[in-house]
Amino acid sequence: MSIWILFQRWAVKNLGQLNGRNLLLTLLGYSAISWLLLVIAGERALTHSLTDFVYYLFVTASTVGYGDMSPTTVMGKWVVSLFIIPGGLGLFALGIGRIAGGFISYWKSGLLGRRSLKVDNHILVLGWNAQRTLHLIKMLQHEEKGNRPIVLCVRPEIENPLPGEVEFVRVASFTDNEGMARASIEQASCIVIDNPEDDVTLSAALYCANKNPTAHLLAYFNDESLSQLLKQHCPNAECIPSVAVEMLAKAAVDPGSSELHHELLSTDQGMTQYSVTYPSGSAITTIDILFTLFKQEHDATLIAIDTGDGVELNPSLQREVPPEAKLFYISDERINQFNWK
Predict the structure, then answer these.
(1) Domain RCK N-terminal: where (predicted)?
(2) Averaged pLDDT of the chain
(3) What pTM does this model have?
């Protein structure tokens, strides 16, 4: 059996699957053979310096051809014509193709939600309800612009609906350790769970509360009884029940109520409800003083307080406000800097 046939079989076996290792070995072999042939041809100007030799190979293989270095001997010209140029072109194309393929694969894995994320202090949205979820993300983006990143984690086989705007992870289940780890669940500062199926929402909420007990956990339920069940196991979870029926009844008795509630919840138009924490270390004050401060300094209206025993709406003006109390107010935009005096 001839050496050429053995070489062909070796090439098919080892280079047929051109992984990174095989490509590197081929490149090193091509460089070594090119240098040896040029030395034999007497092309000293091309081989006396490693820098000049590598530079010449890259310029030739990339077809740039500056012309500042070229073979001068007859044999050198044949070596370049029959081996260096065709071999270099092939390897250069393979290398560029592999690099481009790597970038495309990385981008595609992110688009399909297969990539592990390296994020922290993010808002993790679990669930997919098409336009409803997109609207939720848009509202979060408006609120968190320049602050916390948003990660969407879904179960359906879909691509990232907002590439370049939010991070995206697809999992088989919201209780899958490996899949949820790719969404950096333990580093999230807020977890929002909203699924069409309440049982999926409940299991996901219990799992998240176990994995990240310090995160602000929000869960939307169509069945309010499941909200109560979750609160029994996770007292710190904030459950959002469906209020569609209540809104219909309220609007029937007090026309315009639905528009009022929609504006209070909307973050991109009209007056909106926000919250702020009264700073720790501050002196105890009263609703009367803060109500006046909010209105005069920020053109905002103080509407409620929560000192840990639940939200107290429209509190008395004489109601004391201790440090670290949560205050709820209505304003055109979120107030980032309060003058507590």
Answers:
(1) 133-232
(2) 84
(3) 0.65
Return the CATH number of the domain spanning residue range 3-112: 1.10.287.70
Please name the residues in contact with 193: beta carbons below 8 A apart, sequence gap of 6 or more: 126, 127, 174, 201, 204, 205, 208, 217, 218, 219, 220
Is residue 1 within 8 A of residue 72, CB to CB? The reply is: no
d(CA 57, CA 65): 10
The total of other beta-carbon atoms located within 10 Å of residue 276's CB is 19
Helices (H), 41-130: 44-47, 50-61, 74-79, 85-111
Distance of CA 64 to the CA centre of its chain: 39
Six token digits for residue 75: 């044999």
At residue 328, φ and ψ (nearest 5 deg) are -110, 135
Q: Are 315 and 304 in contact (CB under 8 A)?
A: yes
In this structure, which topology does domain 255-331 adopt according to CATH?
Alpha-Beta Plaits (3.30.70)
Q: What is the pLDDT of residues 258-313, one digit of tens each?
A: 777 777 777 666 788 899 999 988 899 999 999 999 999 889 999 999 998 889 99
Nearest to 208 by CA among 170, 166, 168, 174: 174
Class of domain 122-241: alpha beta
The yes-or-no verdict on residue 59 having pLDDT over 90 is no
* The pLDDT value given to residue 13: 57
Q: How far, in Å, are 2, 28, 84 from residue 33 at the CA level?
A: 21, 9, 9
